[in-house]
Amino acid sequence: MLGDDHTIVRHGIRKILEERKDWEVVAEAGNGRDAVKKILEITPDVAVLDIGMPLLNGIEATRQIVRRAPAVRVLILSMHADEAYITQALQAGAKGYLLKDSADTDLIRAVADVADGRSFFSPAVAKVMLDDYVRHLADKGIADRYESLSEREREIFQLIAEGHSNKEVAELLSISPTTVETHRARILQKLDLHSTAEIVLYAVRRGVIS
Fold first, then answer.
1. How far apart are CA 120 and CA 106, in angstroms?
2. Which has the least CB within 10 A, 73, 95, 111, 152?
3. Which pTM does this prediction carry?
């Protein structure tokens, strides 16, 4: 499902996506309200949404989609690379953030990653987040709490940030889901985080995932 107020942009995205013969663009929308309406009706695997849509912007559309159709994974496609937009998108529940100027090279991978439940961020986005994070630490003169995590906690932290469930993490590391949940609770406490969305945001800022 594609949501963008520029018809030519939607056509360009569709052309790239349809290079994959096993994918189908099932609907398009030129504004946020239509995008939400069609997504709730069709429940596609992935919704690719622009931020600057009329009637309902992409951030608010994402928030409604995640709440009302949680199985739909949202990939934000935007021209904005500053941290404010990225942070809002992640907090709204988006699984990825792709810059329009890199869509021709990264769109297929971004949609594939998001469809598989993983996170995706354009390299330039990850760099912006990391640079801002490092600058913030320097300005505050504080230590990076990430350094307080154990080796195992760092492994689990990255896997959670990449979008893996507790069960998947347990299988990858050959430990029990209960052990994963215990480590997850410790990670949240040590980093002063409160949700998976905040883990993803922190991981992008820290440069753990890109």
1. 10
2. 152
3. 0.71
